[in-house]
Amino acid sequence: DFSSLLPPSLGPAEFFEPGSTRGNPVEARLASLPGTRLEYLVGVFHDSTDELITDYLVAPNAAAAFGTPVLLVAPVRITGKESAVFGEGAWHFSDAWKITLGGRYFDTRLSTDTASSGPLVGAATDVAGKSSQRGFSPKASLTWSPTGDFLYYALVSKGFRIGGPNISAA
């Protein structure tokens, strides 16, 4: 419900965002056998994704003022690529205690093209953009399991998720 964005006389307003995504993720991992004093996991990841999302802002009462209830149409084409290497190692220094250290190095590339039209944006606009990110996301945890019924742990990690476009040129 996007009614609060419009004058009350034009409400109610709804925002729709149908779309489709086609991705090709590939991941390979190598892991140690579980239950050993030193456990590890290493891997590589790559994804190439194409996405088309169309944003619509529709207010039926707006048809009297603008000749159409559709106030915004914004097809957004997104192409993203992400590659990463990751790994972690866990050391069981007793039956009850374990420390884990790891991380993920990533490289992302994103390109977008948004074509906006409708009474809310005035003349049709086309905005293209590109972004890229590289970084490292570390992870560390300490686990204590005094019995088979209890597990206590502390985890510190940093995450990253590839972003996306805004439909506004501003």
Report strand %. over 45%
Q: Unreliable runs, pLDDT <50, ≥5 residues?
A: none
Q: Can you summarize the main beta sheet?
A: 8 strands, antiparallel
Q: What's the total count of β strands?
A: 8
Number of helices: 1
Structural class computed from helices and strand pairing: mainly beta
- Please state the overall shape, judged from the principal axes of the Cα atoms: elongated
CA-atom Rg in angstroms: 24 Å
Structure notes:
The structure is a single chain. This protein is 2% helix and 67% strand. With 170 residues, the protein is mainly β. Strands 1, 2, 3, 4, 5, 6, 7 and 8 form an 8-stranded antiparallel beta sheet that branches. It starts with 13 loop residues before the first strand and ends in a 13-residue tail after the last strand.
How do the strands and helices of this protein lay out in sequence?
Blueprint: E1 14-16, E2 19-23, E3 26-31, E4 38-58, H1 63-66, E5 70-92, E6 97-118, E7 122-147, E8 150-157
Antiparallel strand pairs: 1-4, 2-4, 3-4, 4-5, 5-6, 6-7, 7-8
